[in-house]
Design brief:
By secondary structure, this protein is an alpha/beta fold. It has helices at about 10-25, 50-55, 110-120, 145-160, 170-180, 190-200, 215-225, 255-260, 270-275, 280-290, 315-335; strands spanning about 1-5, 25-30, 35-40, 60-65, 85, 90, 95-100, 125, 160-165, 180-185, 205-210, 235, 265-270, 295-300. Helices cover about 35% and strands about 20% of the residues. Bound molecules: phosphoenolpyruvate and manganese (II) ion.
């Protein structure tokens, strides 16, 4: 339930509404807006009888929210949220943010080379997996803690904040020690214990859409993180599984403007995992930005043919530089 206070509502009236909600055994979360305050009601598992609050002085409207998410919804928080990672602001409506790097950290030489190249080309954030969620157990699973250290060192050397995946609640602490932004991969979008632990950690989280998740399930997953007190969530559309196998996944471009309508959280797009094919990454990166994405995440490898994971979809450092050059006129056109 969301209680919208009138323009003229006084502080005491807002306090009285909060008290009435708390007397019902529920939690009240005031959301001050530019023009008026709304009060979110949390902690209910079913319909809330609004008779004790709807006629209180200052109350303009009571909205019953039937969706499985509230804190992430625009109804709850009309202004766009901005998430800060290092010194990069995501969702600010300024120039979109570019995250680039290899699928996995493979060696010091590989991550350093990639980090220098993507920095030089203008990337804002460096990515690289250390804990890899691979489909089968007989493939490269990542360098784990050693990979985290190499990634963090590459970030320090280039001045780029770093993003890497965290796969389990038990490893949130160690990943958070080394990374600025913690990624939840598509396969873990509904790992609720992981989401709750990330919510408690307070660290910025990049939540990827599950490959078979509806938009509602995606936003409900983000809600788990916010419900634990962490508002620093960036969503990422990375393609969903459809009937067509010509591409690895299908980039759901319409999810980007739709999520902007439904939620205040920033949303990025990952054309690498969405397409699985190098030649499609540049066009789909640009399409996502035209659709309103707050940023893109692209895989870059200095020698994709030797990559231990996701080589076919990785851009070479030269391809990445070409993409960055293509973005300049696009940003002009989009007014950034
Ligand atoms: C990745 O970013 O390398 C990754 C495994 O992505 P996803 O979870 O979207 O498949
Ligand atoms: Mn990958």
């Amino acid at each position: 339930m969301l209680i919208v206070m009138g323009y003229q509502a006084r502080k005491e009236e807002i306090a009285a509404v909060i008290k009435a909600i708390e007397c019902m055994g529920l939690r009240a979360e005031p959301i001050p807006g530019g023009e008026r305050t709304a009060i979110g009601v949390l902690g209910n598992t079913g319909y809330v009888d609004d008779s004790t609050v709807r006629d209180l002085p200052g109350v303009q409207e009571v909205i019953h929210v039937s969706k499985p998410y509230k804190l992430v919804s625009r109804a709850f928080h009309p202004e766009c949220s901005v998430v800060t990672v290092g010194n990069v602001r995501i969702g600010s409506g300024e120039r979109p943010v570019v995250t680039a790097g290899p699928c996995a950290v493979e060696s010091e030489e590989q991550i350093m080379r990639t980090a220098r190249a993507v920095k030089k080309a203008g990337a804002d954030l460096l990515r690289g997996g250390a804990f890899k969620p691979r489909t089968g157990p007989h493939t490269f699973q990542g360098l784990k803690e050693e990979g985290l250290k190499l990634l963090a060192a590459a970030g320090r050397e280039t001045g780029l904040a770093v993003v890497t995946e965290v796969m389990s609640p038990e490893t949130v602490g160690i990943v958070a020690e080394h990374a600025d932004l913690l990624q939840v991969g598509a396969r873990n979008m509904q790992n609720f214990d992981l989401l709750k632990e990330l919510g408690r950690s307070g660290k910025p989280v990049l939540l990827k859409r599950g490959m078979c998740a509806t938009i509602e399930e995606f936003l409900a997953a983000a809600e788990y993180i916010l419900a634990e007190g962490n508002p620093n969530v960036i969503l990422c559309e990375r393609g969903i599984r459809t009937f067509d196998t010509a591409t690895r996944n299908t980039l759901d471009l319409s999810a980007i403007p739709l999520i902007k309508e439904l939620s205040h959280l920033p949303i990025m797009a990952d054309p690498s995992h969405a397409t699985g094919k190098r030649s499609l990454v540049r066009p789909m990166a640009k399409a996502a930005l035209v659709a309103g994405a707050d940023g893109i995440l692209v895989e870059v490898h200095p020698e994709p043919e030797k990559a231990l994971s996701d080589g076919p979809q990785s851009l070479t450092c030269e391809d990445f530089e070409a993409l960055m050059n293509e973005l300049k006129p696009l940003y002009n056109y989009l007014g950034f």
